[in-house]
Amino acid sequence: MSPTARFVRLRSRAVVLDLADVDTDQIVPARFLKRPREEGFGQYLFHSLRRKPDGSLREDFPLNSPTVAGAQLLVAGANFGCGSSRENAVYALLDAGFRAVIAPSFGDIFSGNALKNGLLPVVLPVEVVGRLRARVRGVAATEITVDLERLCVECEGLTQAFEVDPFAREALLGGVDEIGLTLQFEEAIRRFEQADALRRPWL
Amino acid sequence: MRIDATPGDTGVASRRGTLLARIWREHAVAERHGRTLLYVDRHWVHDGSFLAFGKLEAAGRPVRDPRRTSAVADHYVPTAGPRVAPMHDPELSRVSSLLSANASRYGIELFAGDDPRQGITHVVAPELGATQPGMTIVCGDSHTSTHGAFGALGFGIGASEVTHVLATQCVWQRRPRSLAIEVSGRLRPGVTAKDLGLAIIARIGVAGGSGHVIEYRGEAVRALSMEGRMTLCNMTIEAGARAGLVAPDDTTFEYLAGRPRAPQGAAWDAALACWRTLAAEDAGPGHDASIALDAGLVAPMVSWGITPAHALPVDGRVPDPAAGGAERAKLEQALEYMDLRPGTPLQDIAIDRVFIGSCTNGRIEDLRAAARVLEGRRAVVPGFVSPGSSAVKAQAEVEGLDRVFRSAGLEWRESGCSMCVGMNGDVARPGERVASTSNRNFANRQGPQVRTFLMSPAMVAAAAVAGRITDVRRVPVA
Ligand code: SF4
Known about the structure:
The complex is a heterodimer of chains A (about 200) and B (about 475). In chain A, about 35% of the residues lie in helices and about 15% in strands. Chain A has helices spanning about 25, 45-50, 90-95, 110-115, 125-140, 165-175, 180-185, 185-200, and strands at about 10-15, 75, 100-105, 120-125, 145, 150-155, 160. Chain A has a seven-stranded mixed β-sheet. Chain B has helices at about 20-25, 50-60, 90-105, 120-130, 160-170, 195-205, 220, 225-235, 250-255, 265-280, 330-340, 360, 365-375, 390-400, 400-405, 455-465; strands at about 5, 30, 35-40, 40-45, 70, 110, 135-140, 155, 170-175, 175-185, 210-215, 245, 290-295, 300-305, 310-315, 355, 385, 410, 435, 450-455. In chain B, the strands form five sheets. In chain B, strands 6-5-4-7-8 form a five-stranded parallel β-sheet, covered by helices on one side. A five-stranded parallel β-sheet of chain B has the order 18-17-16-19-20. In chain B, strand 10, helix 6 and strand 11 form a beta-alpha-beta unit. The N and C termini of chain B lie far apart (about 70 Å). The model of chain B is unreliable at about 1-15 (pLDDT under 50). The interface between A and B is large, with 59 and 76 residues. Iron/sulfur cluster binds next to helix 12 of chain B.
């Protein structure tokens, strides 16, 4: 894991995307996935939601508002990131400057991909997400704090605890290299392989 | 740092529980913070996996066991013209060359675009006999759930995890819960595994299986062919579940017998004895949740919106968002994108194009079902047929199915993901309505502003002939 994949605490303005089931095709369309990682995927984020068919920006799309420039936090709808396993969906959000997404629920694979790359998926009860959304909509400059160490979200007097997989939390706080961690189990992996070769010799 | 390792469980066949529990136990290498380090028996990479190889190189790690990984050109391979670099499109050439360069650099076997064994990964692995009961199978592709049809735990992973599997042959996972879906009775004539899958998703929703592996059981599931079971497990990811599972039985064993990568001779006998003990797990209680369904009530299904849960029986009407409650905004978004009005009978919706293929419905049985409807008829709209694998294509040509599709006016293409996802440039035109045998009707998936209607191969064929959505049960078939 690269040092940039660490996450401890974030205080930022937020962008609200009030849509359920935003799938990974909507986060970054398939036709851009063949581009090399170095070129960055930020410019393709929410491509078809954000742009008109002629390529110009939709003024009514939240991400296009000048008031959210520099926001590192997305407040999204339920089942965010459902669909394909493309990790580019996570890169697109990171490359566009996002470091955390708050939503009532996430697609399983997206959530795993996000945690591995330092984009924190924060699951909050649907009514709390609704309150945060209302506050940001009321005052665009509203700041939300996501604290991974204390496992809580704060916003102007509202404090809400959240849970993160402890394995991923440790990695995010400490910047653990997961492959390096796993290779400490080398002995166990080898023992498994030896036992398995006897148990299933046909493999 | 504390490390808790458990030795590989050698497995006691008679222990009761779910199939998921059994496979999990038999592949657990270690535990840490509630996660299991699972051993991966088979790993598949594809032409979209270049990011994972890039990460491996950046980490300076070797591939731990290249014999356990295979590479296939499927997502980006052109279905007409040159199939390996140099291709017409320089970007496709680049992706294709990266796959072969990575495969040869790390000593991984490769099924390139011009290999007779090439095809969509989830079609190729089973037809080679490489997908076997009780295995763990991963791939950087969400439809790896397909392999569950054999009683193997197959699930999709992201690029970082692909890198991890290449380097360690293992993957860290939190054990999912199990959801049993019991399907009683029999599917009626004209109703397929695709319809069953869509009916289930329509009922439980696109997040209904979230955090679960779905174990399919019951008479209707037992009656499905391996192709049907693959279609059902393939669609499982569209319900939000990581994997689907069908306990292996004689249908599974007969399918596997004699396939090039299935065990042979004495090894087959030993494998079979082990696989039969997996079948017994199906009787075990212990699922975290369960749902029951009567197969006899399932009709041919059609999706009308922008998630696979937006699906209805073919005799239904486009729903009214006003009656959608909490779903209202989503339904409005769907109707706007699809340019549909509430109350419209589905069978009044005109179709501009058809696509027959994909890892959901690109197998030989699927092509036969579509060809039966098209035999002696003309399609009134254009469309592609892209077989799920080059072997399926060859078999279809032996059976003369290619002639049926061609005489109907459809294009007979080479094998690949093609218009399921359009990464290779096989896309429909903006605004078109496509009747498709694939699995995702997400906005813009088959091309910008393209509107996808998911259905079974026979239903797509019927739509091609009528130029609109049609109940295949009313189309006389020879
Ligand atoms: S056919 Fe479609 S769903 Fe299947 S692997 Fe290819 S792109 Fe994915």
